[in-house]
Design a protein that fits this description.
Blueprint: H1 2-23, E1 31-32, E2 35-36, E3 39-43, H2 54-69, E4 72-76, H3 84-93, E5 98-102, H4 107-116, E6 121-125, E7 134-139, H5 141-155, E8 160-165, H6 170-186, E9 191-196, H7 203-216, E10 221-225, H8 228-239, E11 243-248, E12 259-265, H9 267-280, E13 289-292, E14 299-301, H10 311-326
Parallel strand pairs: 3-4, 3-5, 5-6, 6-7, 7-13, 8-9, 8-10, 10-11, 11-12
Antiparallel strand pairs: 1-2, 12-14
Helix pairs in contact: 2-9, 3-4, 5-6, 5-10, 7-8
Length: 334
């Protein structure tokens, strides 16, 4: 199954790249009906395309923006030969009107380049910058994680659930905190076992951590906020007959006998919306820091599958969702 997923992922990534190359043969800006076509460049996160999560979602958002708003876009993936800093510089040299940095790990490199090119417009996703030419876009991951945590609290059979984070950093702590609060909202007696992989790109490591949690800690429902490492978590839960919760995109297809739901971090919607705003505002953003939560459709939860909530549980979940949207439930992040 794992080898199949790797082949499938590689094929999809290659297909995406082929589509982009074929449809973007000319990367020069041209005049369309008297207006210049906007060009957007994106520096992807450390895992890059094929993570079935964060990077793929961001890429999909730019593809849709290209289709809807007739924009050009370029992208770079980090590698041993291409650092974040070099990737950003290349995108600037490609005359991109807007350069997007994807993920908290690119912040230092983006800010270094942004200082060297003060007239260039940048959009930093998942982190906050104070630089004048950098607009920040973040999400309320804790709200989406609260939702799936509430589901985990409802479906656990032995009152022990798990959380696997990619790296122990402030961003992923938001996922963890929201998840724990959500679990406790529907099942105060449940214990939440938390472990961090230290990596976002190793499915085998995720599988190992999940197997250990299931066997030693008796976890029967596990939430993975760990990028491609999380793929291994989901697959291991399925192998052991346990429940799993995906992240960023609807990851049901990864382990269809295990994935109850996924925390949706709608990076595609947010990027699509940001590009639209950039075009409408003539190459600028009205806000220095944009935040997308449940109310703004920046986060949410995928359809519930594998299990069926009874009417009482379903009402409890819908009430929680409404209260989060209205701001009646607040999640402390200290």
């Amino acid at each position: 199954m794992y080898k199949f997923m790797m082949k499938w992922t590689s094929s999809i990534a290659l297909l995406i790249v082929a589509v982009v190359l074929l449809s973007s043969c000319s990367t020069q800006q041209v005049e369309v009906k008297g207006k210049k076509r906007i060009k957007v460049g994106i520096m992807l996160s450390s895992v890059g395309l094929g993570d079935q999560s964060f990077s793929d979602a961001a890429f999909a958002g730019l593809i849709k923006a290209r289709e809807d708003y007739d924009v050009f876009f370029e992208y770079r993936e980090p590698s041993d030969k291409l650092s974040f800093e070099k990737g950003f510089t290349e995108l600037i040299n490609e005359d991109c009107d807007l350069v997007v940095g994807l993920g908290f790990s690119v912040k230092d490199s983006l800010e270094k380049v942004a200082k060297e090119y003060p007239k260039q417009k940048f959009l930093l996703i998942d982190e906050v910058s104070d630089l004048q030419n950098v607009t920040s876009l973040t999400f309320k991951e804790e709200e989406g994680s609260f939702l799936v945590g509430a589901i985990a609290g409802l479906v656990t059979k032995n009152n022990v659930v798990g959380f696997v984070g990619g790296m122990d950093v402030p961003l992923i702590k938001k996922f963890e905190k929201g998840y724990i609060e959500g679990v406790k909202s529907t099942n105060p007696k449940a214990d939440v076992i938390v472990k961090y992989a230290g990596d976002f790109g190793k499915a085998d490591l995720g599988s190992e951590i999940a197997r250990d949690m299931i066997k030693k800690d008796k976890v029967d429902t596990v939430y993975a906020a760990a990028g491609f490492t999380g793929v291994g978590v989901l697959q291991e839960a399925q192998k052991d007959g346990k429940y799993a919760i995906g992240v960023d995109t609807d990851q049901f297809f990864i382990a269809e006998d295990a994935v109850v739901t996924s925390m949706l971090k709608n990076v595609d919607i947010a990027i699509h919306s940001a590009v639209k705003t950039f075009i409408e505002e003539n190459g600028k953003f009205p806000e220095k820091h944009m935040t997308f939560g449940l109310k703004e459709e920046g986060v949410g939860s995928a359809p519930i599958r594998v299990i069926t909530l009874d009417p009482t549980q379903e009402k409890t979940f819908e009430d929680i969702k409404q209260k989060l949207t209205n701001g009646d439930i607040t999640i402390p992040l200290d």
